[in-house]
Amino acid sequence: MAIYLTKESKVLVQGMTGGEGMKHTRRMLAAGTNIVGGVNPRKAGRTVDFDDRAVPVFGSVVDGMQSTGADVTVVFVPPAFARAAVVEAADAGIGLAVVITEGIPVHDSVAFTTYAKEKGTRVIGPNCPGLITPGQSNAGIIPADIAKPGRIGLVSKSGTLTYQLMYELRDIGFSTCVGIGGDPVIGTTHIDCLAAFQDDPDTETIVLIGEIGGDAEERAAAYIRAHVTKPVVGYIAGFTAPEGKTMGHAGAIVSGSAGTAQVKKEALEAVGVKVGSTPTETARLVLAQLEA
């Protein structure tokens, strides 16, 4: 099985006719994603040819949903238009909006994640690589050829580390890999994914990738203690970050000892999560857990 995204998912791409949208739509189609349309009000009624597939362009998300039954949208619009794009998708009643766009102002992210939640639309991102259920569907920019279907569920703040762990564990495979994004405000959290993987019968082990800044990993640790019975293996990026400097993602802000990699590691280990010191060691811990 999978979480959030399956072979049955019907996917729209907001911003499909732009440069990034075109490139990644072609990659998603090659991965088997059922892309049923793009959205661009200025190009409504046209079709775009992707090799052997002609994809229609709709003037709005609601038009695309009514014509195709779409239940997922992937957002590739520029930062200035991202808020309006997600609000439009939520107003249309779509179930899942995957926001790839980076550089979105925080006040816009606060507004559209709150609004989407009120409307019943799950947002993944912003500033994320999206999610992939190997062998079924790929919504975003995660390379589809670095992993196969399998028993591991992965949730990560970091796109690059998502790819690395997928590659390191490619022989075992994954149920679903979710890149939730590293901005200060995101729609779907570690905890949301932990709950979904806990309920997924085909996910045997969960990999949680965090990074310095904020307290998301500490909150995830508390949730694991109370609700997760499946094995969890973790990795925290940022052990070598210079003290007092903001590093990497917009959310990687450390204040005193709060938000440091060591504090997060200790919080996870206190609830039984094995935490690797490198991505490669983390992969070895996962393999050991699956063989136990």
TrEMBL record:
<comment type="similarity">
    <text>Belongs to the succinate/malate CoA ligase alpha subunit family.</text>
</comment>
<feature type="active site" description="Tele-phosphohistidine intermediate">
    <location>
        <position position="249"/>
    </location>
</feature>
<comment type="pathway">
    <text>Carbohydrate metabolism; tricarboxylic acid cycle; succinate from succinyl-CoA (ligase route): step 1/1.</text>
</comment>
<comment type="subunit">
    <text>Heterotetramer of two alpha and two beta subunits.</text>
</comment>
<dbReference type="InterPro" id="IPR005810">
    <property type="entry name" value="CoA_lig_alpha"/>
</dbReference>
<comment type="function">
    <text>Succinyl-CoA synthetase functions in the citric acid cycle (TCA), coupling the hydrolysis of succinyl-CoA to the synthesis of either ATP or GTP and thus represents the only step of substrate-level phosphorylation in the TCA. The alpha subunit of the enzyme binds the substrates coenzyme A and phosphate, while succinate binding and nucleotide specificity is provided by the beta subunit.</text>
</comment>
<feature type="binding site">
    <location>
        <begin position="17"/>
        <end position="20"/>
    </location>
    <ligand>
        <name>CoA</name>
    </ligand>
</feature>
<feature type="binding site">
    <location>
        <position position="43"/>
    </location>
    <ligand>
        <name>CoA</name>
    </ligand>
</feature>
<dbReference type="InterPro" id="IPR005811">
    <property type="entry name" value="SUCC_ACL_C"/>
</dbReference>
<feature type="binding site">
    <location>
        <position position="163"/>
    </location>
    <ligand>
        <name>substrate</name>
    </ligand>
</feature>
<dbReference type="Pfam" id="PF02629">
    <property type="entry name" value="CoA_binding"/>
</dbReference>
<dbReference type="InterPro" id="IPR033847">
    <property type="entry name" value="Citrt_syn/SCS-alpha_CS"/>
</dbReference>
<dbReference type="GO" id="GO:0016874">
    <property type="term" value="F:ligase activity"/>
</dbReference>
<dbReference type="InterPro" id="IPR017440">
    <property type="entry name" value="Cit_synth/succinyl-CoA_lig_AS"/>
</dbReference>
<dbReference type="Pfam" id="PF00549">
    <property type="entry name" value="Ligase_CoA"/>
</dbReference>
<protein>
    <recommendedName>
        <fullName>Succinate--CoA ligase [ADP-forming] subunit alpha</fullName>
        <ecNumber>6.2.1.5</ecNumber>
    </recommendedName>
</protein>
<keyword id="KW-0547">Nucleotide-binding</keyword>
<feature type="domain" description="CoA-binding">
    <location>
        <begin position="4"/>
        <end position="104"/>
    </location>
</feature>
<dbReference type="InterPro" id="IPR036291">
    <property type="entry name" value="NAD(P)-bd_dom_sf"/>
</dbReference>
<dbReference type="InterPro" id="IPR016102">
    <property type="entry name" value="Succinyl-CoA_synth-like"/>
</dbReference>
<dbReference type="InterPro" id="IPR003781">
    <property type="entry name" value="CoA-bd"/>
</dbReference>
<keyword id="KW-0816">Tricarboxylic acid cycle</keyword>
<feature type="binding site">
    <location>
        <begin position="100"/>
        <end position="102"/>
    </location>
    <ligand>
        <name>CoA</name>
    </ligand>
</feature>
<keyword id="KW-0436">Ligase</keyword>
